[in-house]
Amino acid sequence: MIPSLAIVLQRWFTDTKDGHSEWYVARFRRLAAEGADLAGEARLVDAMLPPGGRVLDAGCGTGRVGGALFERGHDVVGVDADAVLVQAARVDHPGPQWLVADLASLDMTALGEVEPFDGAVLAGNVIVFVAPGTETDVLSSVARHVTPAGFVVVGFHVDRHLTLSEFDEHVAAAGLRLEHRFATWDLRAWHHDADFAVSVLRHA
What we know:
Elements: H1 11-15, H2 20-33, H3 40-48, E1 54-58, H4 64-71, E2 75-80, H5 83-92, E3 97-100, E4 117-122, H6 126-129, H7 135-143, E5 146-157, H8 164-173, E6 176-182, E7 196-203
Parallel strand pairs: 1-2, 1-4, 2-3, 4-5
Antiparallel strand pairs: 5-7, 6-7
Helix pairs in contact: 2-5, 3-4, 7-8
């Protein structure tokens, strides 16, 4: 499983060196050229969406998840705070709408996207790399753009900056509830020794 550091109001900007975004773009272009499986998260989200569903790729990075969902026939809008990564997504995955914005204060209407989403995905450790203290705001902001029957699915390594219990507190504070939890994106059963968690969230 390949972690993405692509994100929002982030430790990305404070914990990484100059040129890191460019390195990150080059890394995923190399992996794609080598035939690496970069669509594992997208397969799960695809199964949850209706045919031609509308999906928000929150913390889209270079667009690998949203691009794969677009190829599966979905209406995709990706958002990331890093303009370098968003530009790479526009070049490498034409078709979806790729936007630069902060997830903690996300206003899709102001960005010209007025229709709600059937679901949203925060893949590749997005929630781990948001600015400390904004986790509830990020989850709440993303959920606000999802239909009442829609979902938010979040995957992250539980030993990086954010514990699972802390995450669950943010989930509740954001007006969401946990529906399912898995240890991997390919739906292996959750167990308390797992170092990765995939959480399917719904409106409370």
